[in-house]
Design goal:
The protein is of the alpha+beta class. It has a single domain, classed as Ribosomal Protein S8, Chain: A, domain 1, CATH 3.30.1370. 43% of the residues lie in helices and 19% in strands. The chain has a 3-stranded antiparallel sheet with strand order 1-3-2.
């Protein structure tokens, strides 16, 4: 999946959660880091609405910097 496609899918998933309290584990992998940077940049700037987010390496999540956890 290309970055644009993945970001559009993630946006749809977050919107579909609406006001329900959900946790989404985004597995963007390590690779070149393109998708990880896009996801995290969108979260920091508020382009992806959520209550909170955590970077895998900060919370010891399986996959470390290959995952991001989003709480809607």
């Amino acid at each position: 999946m290309y970055a644009e496609e993945a970001m559009a899918l993630l946006s749809r998933v977050i919107r579909r959660c609406g006001t329900q309290s959900r946790s989404i584990l985004v597995i963007h992998g390590n690779g070149t880091g393109t998708l990880r940077l896009r996801v995290r940049s969108a979260l920091r700037s508020g382009r992806l609405p959520c209550r909170a987010y955590f970077f895998g390496e900060d919370i010891g999540a399986p996959g470390l910097d290959g995952v991001t956890v989003i709480h809607t």
